[in-house]
Design brief:
Blueprint: E1 6-10, H1 22-35, E2 40-46, H2 49-52, E3 59-65, E4 73-79, E5 85-90, H3 92-95, H4 111-129, E6 135-139, H5 145-149, E7 158-162, E8 170-172, H6 175-179, H7 183-189, E9 190-191, E10 194-196, H8 197-204, E11 207-210, H9 213-218, H10 229-234, E12 239-241, H11 270-281, E13 294-297, H12 306-311, H13 313-318, E14 323-326, H14 331-343, E15 347-350, H15 355-364, E16 367-370, H16 380-386, E17 390-394, H17 397-402, E18 416-418, H18 423-437, H19 440-451, H20 457-474
Length: 477
């Protein structure tokens, strides 16, 4: 029998402790799915103020001595009563703040130091415990210094996962003085006129992954590489795209605790009851109830295609197509949506992070909108499919890999797609969906086909298991 693989999963956020989005969901669901394959996974993340307020039972494990930076000590706390053992790096000066990374639309000026400290603490913990893990699985730029600071042989091999290549941990050169890193790390991190944490991880990790096959190809191009494409092309043999999964214990219309009305493929008519209740709650006029309801749950940021949506709002109003948008983000987008919600009777903007409303919007809408300029993987389009809510998406990244474009001759497929990121192409794709919506039997067939799609985490976790096995072969014990 093969020995059990032990993995230390380093991340800046994880549910149920804390989170701002998809990374936190993955950091919960993937380790749990890996456990089903017999992989022993420990989590490690910063001990944020938000975590301290949850009152979870923590045990003080030990104090660590660090080599670099203004703070030389870190306290390690451990939570052992949940399904996964979780380590927390405690340094209140860095992590007891109102936000994980900074206020909305901004960032803390010392984020380079905060996450350099975290990476050093992870390595110090490994050395102190004698490296009981076979693999280090690191996520996004916040953990990028882990493979940079120690070469293979002094640590287990690293799998580094890029969740969003647009966020690279780019800082001015002056941060190097404050971090006090060794010369070998400095040479690796310098990029152009500044410092780039992600570049270091790309060059120093033994294996690289990202969150969809199409995105793995896209980030190797000048258009989507954001200045690091040359390094990714150098490492192309070690880079793989693995789709994220959906936690169907949280997202299933048959047993969703957030929904006042639940349904299954055999009870699809009940979805219309949920739609009417949602539209009533949001104050839509009854004459709009029989129109297709468009829904969008998103961070309101440029890369999500919010400008494309704003450009077609007047057209949607003239066509009397009801739209509900749920989310928070850049002030300019929040203000534009708020104005539209006040002046256009068919638009409702809910500017909040509201888990209950997110489930209601995805489940109660007929058509789900994701006009992303780029999308590493995307979760909501996969969730929408399970709820029989047909997506309209840009043909990029994970959207390309998870939504099958509807053929208007055979009406086979699960969604409607457009490629050119311009409002007219987005509108054309949306209007194709609206026309098909008017053909009730065909629409129902699309819904049933969509609800069959399986993006469960168990399937995706098997790909990570194979990567772990390859890494263990690099550093056998």
């Amino acid at each position: 029998m093969a020995r059990k693989i032990r993995v230390l999963y380093a991340t800046s956020e994880a549910f149920p402790f804390t989170g701002t989005g998809g990374l936190a969901e993955v950091s919960r669901a993937l380790p749990l799915a890996l456990k089903e394959f017999g992989v022993e996974v420990d989590l490690i993340l910063p001990f944020y103020e938000e975590v301290s307020k949850k009152g979870i039972p923590l045990r003080r494990l030990l104090d660590l001595r660090l080599d670099y930076g203004p703070f030389k000590e870190a306290e390690v706390l451990v939570f052992e009563e949940g399904p996964l053992r979780t380590f927390f790096i405690h340094r209140p000066e860095y992590y007891f703040r109102p936000f994980l990374y900074g206020p909305p639309g901004d960032a803390y000026p010392d984020n380079a130091q905060r996450f350099s400290f975290f990476c050093q603490a992870v390595l110090a913990l490994g050395r102190t415990l004698g490296w009981p893990w076979d693999v280090l699985h690191c996520h996004d730029w916040h953990t990028a210094l882990i493979p940079v600071l120690l070469p293979l042989g002094e640590r287990p091999p690293v799998l580094f996962t890029i969740h969003n290549h647009g966020y690279q941990g780019a800082f001015p050169l002056k941060v190097l003085e404050e971090m006090q890193l060794p010369p070998r790390a400095i040479d690796t991190l310098v990029h152009g006129e500044g410092v780039n944490f992600l570049k270091g991880a790309i060059l120093c990790s033994e294996k690289l992954s990202t969150v969809s096959p199409s995105y793995a190809l896209e980030i190797q191009t000048p258009e989507m590489g954001f200045g690091l494409d040359q390094y990714l092309r150098q490492r192309s043999k070690d880079l793989i795209g693995i789709l994220n999964g959906v936690d169907y214990s949280l997202w299933d219309p048959r047993n969703d605790p957030y929904l006042p009305v639940r349904f299954s493929p055999k009870e699809l008519s009940r979805k219309s009851l949920l739609k009417r209740e949602l539209m009533s709650e949001l104050g839509f006029q009854p004459e709009l109830f029989n129109r297709p309801l468009l829904g969008m749950v998103s961070r309101l940021v440029y890369e999500k295609g919010i400008e494309l949506l704003l450009a077609i709002l007047e057209v949607l109003s003239k066509l009397q197509l009801p739209l509900v948008v749920l989310g928070v983000g850049e002030r300019r987008f929040e203000e534009a949506l708020a104005r539209a919600s006040e002046s256009l009777g068919n638009i409702r903007a809910v500017l909040a992070f509201d888990e209950t409303m997110a489930h209601k919007v995805i489940a109660g809408s007929d058509i789900y909108l994701m006009p992303s300029l780029y999308e590493p993987c995307g979760l909501n389009q996969m969730v929408a499919l399970r709820y029989g809510t047909i997506p309209v998406v840009r043909n990029t990244g994970g959207l390309k890999d998870t939504v099958k474009g509807v053929d208007l001759k055979t009406f086979k497929g699960t969604g409607f797609k457009f490629s050119v990121p311009k409002p007219c192409y987005f509108l054309k794709a949306l209007l194709r969906a609206v026309r098909v919506y008017g053909q009730k039997r065909i629409w129902r067939r699309l819904q049933l086909e969509a609800m069959k799609e399986d993006f469960s985490w168990r399937r995706q976790a098997s790909h990570y298991l194979r990567l772990y096995e390859e890494l263990c072969a690099l550093n056998p014990r």
